[in-house]
Queue: 3 jobs
Job 1
Amino acid sequence: MKILDQTHDQFVDAFRRNHGGGTHTGTAVYRQVMKHGQTAFDGLDAVARRPGLAGELASGLALSPGRLVHRVSDGGVVKFVTRLADDLDIESVVIPMFRRYTLCVSSQVGCRMGCRFCRTGKMGLLRNLTAAEIVGQVFTARHQLGVDVRNVVFMGMGEPLDNPDNLIQALRVLVDQRGMDIARRYITVSTVGLTAGIDRLARFDGGPVNLAVSLNAPNDDIRSRLMPVNRAISMSALRDTLQAYPLAKKSALFVEYVLIRGVNDRKEDATALARYLAPMKVKLNLIPCNPAPGSDLQPPSVAAYERFHDWLVAEGVFVRRRGEKGGRIMAACGQLGGRGGFRNG
């Protein structure tokens, strides 16, 4: 009987079909696993009152977050590698943010979007992650690494909206207050701009979550050279979809702009970007390109980064500086997929 890819109600229904009884026992088991990370049930009164049930659960409960096989840290950032049942690896990143922790989760093994600045894209797509494998990263961070994860961002390996069924089910599990209990306002799904997926996410039955768009260019010409998806979905079509996305109260769209030396860092680029964003309520994350082995794309100088930032501010854009975190352990934006994502051996 599965659990990591089940909401409380789904699990309790399955529990009653398999083991009988009322909802109380199933609820107690669900809470023991999802909230406390425990798989020993002998101490639960609801289980102890039914002879043999603890043994049935020990042998029949499918808890498969994957095996933690590697971790590395730098400056508070922790990257950990999970080995999945089919011997593929994925990477996740814990990022300290003031008094809370953000977990960057993967949604696929590899990625087929092919963005030039992203190391994961060079792997191609090996397969989608299941909802249990997505939720399992939060489970591992909380219950094996002991991290009090409050924020979850889908900015790891893969394109989340290229795996919509498992993404949506994972979101249902993550926001369930009787389980992982992560508030929707603390969840962000990042996409290269798959408009059909954005439309589907807009209809998520758990309510709107934050949406981040990896834009990285001021016009179609530059974006198509950096991101193949733009050849199928133009920036104009993307903006139409973004303007229809239901934002939570007091929220805004997040736009990610990877600044690359000599590619998208001119003053005219800043001006065109500001004009593109003007009709929308956005917060722009300005990210210096993180160099990857073998890439010809380079980060801007500190002075060039500051100039571009100031140009955007002068145009009235809300800009947030994104300092480099985890670059030395290949855990920064666009760097995942070095150790993870390959078959063991």
Job 2
Amino acid sequence: MKAFMTNGTVNFLEKLEDKHSAIDFFLMTSNSGALAYYESEGKSVFSAGRNYEIVIQSGNIQKDGYVVMNNIPVTEDGRAPFEDRFKQRENEMDMMPGFQAFRLLRPLKGNTYVVFTQWASIQDFENWKNSEHFKKAHKGQATKPPAYAADRPFLTEYHMLKKEE
């Protein structure tokens, strides 16, 4: 399964959604703009966008919620250990109140993986970040970057776009 995303204005992304009504798009907004995301076995309908292979998935993406994407540049040699680290992870995040979905997305071009999580609310995400499970999962990462890191990771955060009724 693949994941596809592109950025644009809300108006532009809503027109894409209207044009491709058979696709279940997830539209999101942030302070820096809007994003359309969808998953499919087929090819991307976006003329400009980012394409990923879904390596790991749990939960179901919802039309309402809060999305955090941890964008992590990974060296070519670091891909396998990076993915293995996530494959070995305990699914404690999945048991947290407010958890909705998790995806580990491998880039089809470039080197930046996306760790996609969706929560019912910002507070649910903050509760995860402050949990013992989070501290255990991220133990030792604050002191030095892992060997697989090609550059500094960065977060992008979105709220699912609520449709006007």
Job 3
Amino acid sequence: MIDTYILAAIIVSALVTWIPRIFPYILVRFAKLPDKVVQFLGYLPITIIFALILSSIFTVEVGSLPRLNWLETIAVLPTFLVISKSKNVMLAVVTGIICIAFLRLVF
């Protein structure tokens, strides 16, 4: 059986995760965003993919400088090309996954 405390924690965690993801969609349905905000939001896909990539191409250990991962760095090039041309995060992520899988298979 599941404990009521664990069930409550799961439900509260789901709400805390769900509300920030769904609330903006509800807000935008009933209010029109200013053009500056829409223009700013257009930069989010490239920002998100850059943050994901930057965290994966460097290995950080306490007490030493960050180390560059070469395979991931090579896979970044086609990923950046795809995200800059299409602005489609999902397509860029799939491109990155395929590139790194191919590079790991070869090397």
